[in-house]
Amino acid sequence: MNKRTKFYLRNIQLFSKKYIFNSKYIIRNMLIATIIMTLVATGTGLGTVVTHMPKKEKAEKTEAVVTENVTEEFAINLEAVPMLDDNLISNMRASLEADILADIEPNDTEMVSSANNGFDSKFVAIEDNVNIRTEATTDSEVVGKINDGVVGDVVSVDGDWVEISSGAVSGYVKSEFIITGDEAYEYAEDYKTVLATVNDDSVNVRSKASKEADVIETAYEGTKYVVVEETDVDNDWVCVEVVDGKGYINSDFVEVRVTYPEASALEEKDSLDDTDDSTDEEEEPETPNEPEEPQEPEEPEKPEDPGKPSVITRDSISLTEEEILLMSVVVTLESGGECYEGQLAVANVIINRLVAGSWGSSVSDVIYAPGQFSCVGTDRFYTLMASGAQASCVQAVREAAAGTNNIGSYMSFRPTSYIDVSTLGSYAIIGNHVFF
Predict the structure, then answer these.
(1) I need a surface site. Which of 193, 352, 392, 416 has the fewest CB within 10 A?
(2) How far does Cα 381 stand from its chain's mean position?
(3) CA 25 to CA 335: how far, in whole Å?
(4) What is the pTM of this model?
(5) What CATH number belongs to 304-435?
């Protein structure tokens, strides 16, 4: 059973629980049934009176007499119908609600109320590497990508295509690769990140939810933290992730909101292959390859790059899975659109800094060093920390940690358009970055 079918069946079940077997509707239907039963009993009584009358008496009975008999029969049947008093109704409703809620899982309860969560006009991607195009045709230009779990707004529907907007990207995707409505809300739960943004000049992050607890660190206005959902913390405090575990911030000094992964704009070196464009998969990759062919002979024409190192092997470095994730997220944000060699180079910049010790003695120290990696602390940073980094970047980090070094001792990099290489004594250009 595929994802879409599973969600449809689940929606039918929840619809039944919400609109058919909900206690308030059951009570209403029981009252309606009582009235119907009364009317049926009344008709039956009338038919009985008329049927058992002697023929001669039937002809002689006046309208008033018939009315009297009907009234008497009606009263008898009403007495036979069990009436529902207020206490019985209240007890029955409470019992039914308890039974229904016991059968509904937590996620089901959330989904039943999803209409109030703003997902009526939103979508969630259920496949990776899906093209966003300028028009509702596979012949149009690709302007971005969506991966599994990306959330955005549905603008319009055009046949098998849906016009969407996510992050800074707008365009068309095929409807088979996204879901909408209640099922989108439930699906997106696995990809959401709750962020707390500091809204005061400086705020203490404490070890416990108390003003008397130790101060772990000081946060400044605009700093973002991932919120840890803890049921035992009252509304006066927000539990957040910090480098060494958990911390607590007074809720008066943060704004909490839910974020989801967003579409990414198409980078120049991104592949255009994906599942929605099987007819032009063979044609599109030729487009980026054509301008690269005349560039290939230009690389040896750079004798002014004397410091470009060759790939070397050094001692491996042991990293925890948390450190690999942290590095991979930074590599994704700094060089996710670059070639693999460029991603490996950025990973080695971080490791070179760790080995040097000038930025701290741990991966966290290097990553969170003030003013070093501009991507740290952004919404996208925290989203990837929750949902995972780009696979090629994770591989680059693991390879760099294993000892593969393609930039020597360089510890900095800049976009090629942001730096004058003539001011550098030694450097290496890999993709769109200069390493020095």
Answers:
(1) 416
(2) 14
(3) 56
(4) 0.43
(5) 1.10.10.2520
Per-residue pLDDT tens digits for 92-102: 655 555 555 45
Average pLDDT, the chain: 75
DSSP per residue, 43-96: HHHHHHHHHTS-HHHHHH--HHHHHHHHHHHHHHHHHHSPP--HHHHHHHHHHH
Sheet containing strand 193-198, edge to edge, reads 224-226, 193-198, 254-259
Fold annotation for 193-259: SH3 type barrels. (2.30.30)
Give every strand in the sheet of 142-146, ordered side by side: 178-180, 122-125, 151-158, 161-166, 169-174, 130-133, 142-146, 264-265
**Domain-by-domain residue ranges, the chain?**
3-112, 116-191+262-296, 193-259, 304-435
Distance CA 179, CA 235 (A): 34
Q: How far apart are CA 383 and CA 128, in angstroms?
A: 16
Q: Find out whether 253 and 273 touch, Cβ atoms under 8 Å.
A: no
Contact yes or no for 182/110 (Cβ under 8 A): no
Contact partners, residue 275, CB within 8 Å, separation at least 6: 127, 129, 130, 177
Answer for the pair 375, 384: CB distance below 8 angstroms, yes or no. no
Look up residue 348 and give its two tokens. 């080695």
| 39-83: pLDDT as tens digits | 777 766 655 555 555 555 544 544 444 444 444 444 545 455 455
Burial of 183 (0-12, 13-18, 19+ CB in 10 A): buried
DSSP state of 175: G
Judge whether 220 and 201 are in contact, CB under 8 Å.
yes
